């Protein structure tokens, strides 16, 4: 039987904690008595958020195994014990035509959204299994189930994150450790700035996703979408003929990530992604 440790005093690390879902989750779990660390590749923003929330923050590049080791060693030294809960939340979401996607941006999406999740799980799961307790929650996306034009590589990364979560859950079954996936629909954060929300996909706030993460930590569920009904509803489309699905998608205008991006509203986020992508490849900023 999976052990369900209380969040009171639990040592929790949240990646991508400087903003959005990560920051909202840090605030919520800290309010329930957890000892929270947030990590983010943007160290200045991370430290600022940590100071505001009364938690601990530091630089974490989820694409680097060495960065993971440094962060976990720091937490264990600071907290007097190993990590109890990891929330793998860091992610990037460029949108647009697949043919226009640059190699640096593609590498960044896959390295952050997939390699980052795998690095985190590999860094903590063996120790958790040895101790017979622990929980990893991977923040995937409903884009890990629903293919959307304009999101080819992002879709690929989130399908991978969901698959990795479910596979690791089975591999560590019986050890006292749980691996779960949380799949938000469209979230009103900087990642979706200038993107056309809605179109049949419900929109939620970061606090809604944080509440789902807290619920999963309590129930140890394998998967939970936000809102909760979305994943079960989408699963029924397996029984719907493709021509009817295509008609419904046309009515909902599911190509809006290709045709209706507000580039001005999205510029700040995309500029940051571009800087991160170039830094990731060791290139000088343009």
UniProtKB/TrEMBL annotation:
Pfam families: adh_short (PF00106). Residues 10-190 form the Ketoreductase domain. One of its GO terms (molecular function) is oxidoreductase activity. InterPro entries: KR_dom, NAD(P)-bd_dom_sf, SDR_fam. Keywords: NADP, Oxidoreductase. It comes from the Bacteria. Belongs to the short-chain dehydrogenases/reductases (SDR) family. This is Short-chain dehydrogenase. It comes from Mycolicibacter arupensis.
């Amino acid at each position: 039987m999976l052990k369900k440790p209380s969040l009171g005093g639990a040592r929790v690390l949240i990646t991508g904690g400087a903003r959005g879902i990560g920051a909202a989750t840090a605030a919520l779990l800290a309010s329930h008595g957890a000892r929270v660390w947030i990590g983010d590749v943007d160290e200045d923003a991370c430290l600022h958020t940590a100071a505001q929330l009364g938690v601990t923050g530091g630089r974490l590049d989820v694409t680097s195994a060495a960065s993971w080791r440094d962060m976990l060693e720091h937490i264990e030294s600071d907290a007097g014990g190993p990590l109890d809960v990891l929330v793998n939340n860091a992610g990037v979401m460029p949108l647009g035509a697949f043919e226009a996607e640059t190699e640096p941006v593609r590498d960044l999406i896959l390295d952050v959204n997939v390699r980052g999740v795998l690095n985190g799980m590999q860094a903590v799961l063996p120790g958790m299994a040895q101790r017979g307790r622990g929980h990893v929650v991977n923040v995937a996306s409903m884009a890990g189930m629903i293919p959307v034009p304009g999101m080819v590589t992002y879709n690929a990364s989130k399908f991978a994150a969901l698959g990795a979560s479910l596979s690791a859950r089975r591999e560590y079954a019986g050890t006292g450790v749980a691996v779960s996936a949380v799949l938000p629909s469209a979230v009103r954060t900087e990642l979706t700035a200038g993107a056309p929300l809605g179109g049949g996909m419900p929109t939620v706030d970061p606090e809604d996703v944080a509440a789902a993460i807290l619920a999963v930590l309590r129930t140890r569920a394998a998967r939970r979408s936000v809102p909760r009904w979305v994943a079960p509803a989408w699963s029924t489309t397996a029984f719907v003929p493709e021509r009817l699905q295509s008609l419904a998608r046309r009515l909902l205008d599911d190509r809006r990530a290709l045709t209706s991006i507000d580039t001005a509203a999205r510029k700040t986020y995309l500029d940051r992604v571009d800087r991160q992508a170039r830094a990731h490849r060791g290139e000088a900023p343009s």
